[in-house]
Amino acid sequence: MALHPPYNSTYPLSAPLLTSYGTRFRIGVITDLDTESKHKDKKNTWISYYMKGYLTLFSDHSAVKIDWDPESVVLESTISAKGRGMELSELVAFNGKLYTCDDRTGIVYEITQENQVLPFALLSDGDGRQAKGFKCEWATVKDKALWVGGLGKEWTTTTGIVQNFWPQWVKSVGHTGDIFNIDWITNYNSLRQKGGFDAPGYLIHESGVWSDVHQQWFFLPRRASTETYEEVADEQRASNVMFRADEHFQEISMIRVGPLHPTHGFSSFKFIPGTRDQIIVALKSEEKDAEPVASYIMAFTINGDIILEETKIGDYPFKFEGIEFI
């Protein structure tokens, strides 16, 4: 048996089904319940809802159809930080397995076929020499490594006073668990400058994907503002912009995707397999008074042409913050 097994590039994790009108993929979405993740009955237990369904892409790429399973899966963990845990912020297929990340503890979990969550890596904040866990918000695969990023803006008080720059670092995690901590302050700030959101303005990122096809980074920020961060006002500063950047953030472009709904911010996206990274399926979530209201799913081309309008995901008052082809 090899000490370090080879990387498994299987994607999507299950084979799509060809139908008379298109291609049907298995998908999953996952919640960040914030303080509601604490189990109501079990001691020292935190939960997240993992919902599965099907995405059908019509053969002519003119439409996308979503069908959800009637029941969701409850994922449980007994690991927390300061009484909070399982606030899962992304879903990503990596090395032939499915992973998620808890933005409270900084733990990257594997989600098994039996719906268990197994700790895979522990990400410390910023440069990796901090006692606090990394507030992970997005994850993608690049060069056979799992890249995990945070909010992408300075950490501030609720009124915008800068405390540190740790959320502007990213992590590169190998398939055997080795971790590299990378300073991305310049990269994140380059996106801000391109969009006209220089400090005291800001971007907040919860979704980022590397495209091998285009050799570019794609970002759909959750928030975008030209004003100083302020916690209450931030709920009304959702973004409808999409950035594309080359590997070194030297060439950056920006477009707008669909109408702007000030409370609907992007939380996750993936390229639909088989489209040569031309079509994106994305999640948006909505909060009011720091409480989750709803989540939405939509699909569009990389040129911003809408294929599936924002569609509410069930009647759940949850933030779905990760989507993946499973």
Automatic annotation (TrEMBL):
Any GO BP annotation: proteoglycan biosynthetic process
PANTHER family per record: APYRASE (PTHR13023), SOLUBLE CALCIUM-ACTIVATED NUCLEOTIDASE 1 (PTHR13023:SF3)
UniProt organism field: Capitella teleta
Similarity-based family: Belongs to the apyrase family.
Keywords carried by this UniProt record: Calcium, Hydrolase, Metal-binding
Keyword Glycoprotein: no
Residues annotated as binding Ca(2+): 89-90, 137, 206, 267, 321
Cofactor: Ca(2+)
GO molecular function: calcium ion binding; GDP phosphatase activity; UDP phosphatase activity
Domain of life the protein comes from: Eukaryota
Name this polypeptide is given: Soluble calcium-activated nucleotidase 1
